[in-house]
Amino acid sequence: MAAVRTFSLPHYPDYPIQVALFKDVKNATFLRSQLLEANADFDYAFIDATMILTPLHLLHPTFLSLHLALSTPPRLKSRTPHSEIIFRLHPNNNIGESYRKFGITDTTTSLIAVKLSLTPEITSESVAKHLGDVVEGTSVEIGENGEQLGEMCQVSKIRKVYKLGDGGKPKGKKGVVNGDADVDERKQMESVILGIMSVKGT
Amino acid sequence: MASIPTPGPEYTTHILPAPFTSSPLTLLAQGAEALVYRTTFLTPNTPCILKYRPPKPYRHPILDKRLTRARLLAEARVLVKCRRDGVKVPAVLGLDADQGWLVLEWVEGGNVRSTLDRWVKEGGQFEKLGESSKDGENKDVWEFMRAIGTSVGKVHDIGVCHGDLTTSNLMVKTTEGHGQAQPQKPSAPAQPYLTGDIILIDFGLATQTVQDEDRAVDLYVLERAFAATHPGAESLFQEVLRAYGESYRGGRAVLKKLEDVRLRGRKRSMLG
Ligand SMILES: Nc1ncnc2c1ncn2[C@@H]1O[C@H](COP(=O)(O)OP(=O)(O)OP(=O)(O)O)[C@@H](O)[C@H]1O
Fold this sequence. Notes:
The complex is a heterodimer of chains A (about 200) and B (about 270).
Chain A (H helix, E strand, L loop, with lengths): L4 E3 L9 E7 L4 H9 L8 E4 L6 H16 L10 H9 L5 H8 L8 E6 L7 H11 L3 E3 L14 H7 L16 H22 L3
Antiparallel strand pairs in A: 1-2, 2-4, 2-5, 3-4
Helix pairs in contact in A: 2-3, 2-7, 3-4
Chain B lengths: L8 H4 L13 E5 L4 E7 L1 E10 L8 H24 L7 E5 L4 E5 L3 E3 H10 L17 H19 L2 E2 L8 E4 L24 E3 L6 E2 L3 H18 L4 H14 L3 H21 L1
Antiparallel strand pairs in B: 1-2, 2-3, 3-5, 4-5, 6-8, 7-10, 8-9
Helix pairs in contact in B: 4-6, 5-7, 6-7
């Protein structure tokens, strides 16, 4: 069994989001091949955890994907609600590029798996069992507020994808403890990234 | 705003689009264009503002949708640009331009109007603010004015004009007693409510422009707004302009232009 955290998005209480985090993943190539073969059992958003800055950075595209999938008619731009999550993470409209940058790759070792409970048989237990069986790696518990979801990020790579330059970088203020400056930098980056994802492709 | 007809009851009981339709939301404001609610977004601990532009029944539906979409997008894009360039505005948390809604970060605090009102209520007197008071017990209120000027300068510097600068559209972010106890600053201000960050809101009429004329009109609108909400505060407002002039290269040229804009404004009102 893998550890799974269930998130409930405000305004969509009927569609819980199941999220699992792994480190030291050893079979990324296999997992990716299942996505490429469109194996229905592997209908997840498999995200490279080094590209996720904060919990909101993950929840934003998840919300949007759910929202677009539930619209009448659905407004998804990619094949499934799960691939849409990856697509929504990227600042541009290129689906292939989104996969390369945010999706699982053969070299991924830190992995976030997201599954939308769009039907009643998808529960935190079913997801925990399946992922526990197929992911070769160490399952990491996610706290109630999802703090762990940003712990594996590589800030410089994220800056680059969103072309953030120095935006939000602390300007070496004296007397500020490094930890605080770090939190501040992430908050600033997060607020810009949420905006970029919001206006993407419009 | 005075010329807007009172909205009918169908407005106040507006049905919100998905996913807000059955959520319990608090209506904060009902402007000419938008309904503004307070709610949460993405997580239950992320307070936000929902701006919904309902369809206008008197407009052709397709045209209406297109206009609503374009305006929301313009507002969102300008806000994202501001955040990117380090100007303090609410972050954009979500957008569905087709359905007419925009979700923004919640800013805790009052606005410049309410802050100055409080200062007056607590004994502040505009008439007694001579130059000599700048270093005295009133130094916080002067500093507050400078912070406003600097904020407006910063927006203009990145090539954005706000379009509707009023004392309500400048929020003052609360810093008092937030989170864990903060280390006492060596010289704690006498009026902490005057030291919050200035956050510009309501970019519904904003444009991306670097024309001095547009910038000067922005300042003129703010000057008139100040005169309307705080008559007697002219000398205090001069401090806003002074700080603006020093806040970025080009600020002084805009102040020069402001003189022309004032003259035109006066002529117009004499004709008017
Ligand atoms: N980010 C925010 N955080 C907290 N309060 C806000 C925020 N944005 C707006 N408000 C509150 O809601 C009110 C209306 O918001 P805003 O001015 O953006 O809406 P509007 O309908 O475009 O306004 P108007 O009709 O005046 O143009 C503001 O005066 C303020 O009190």
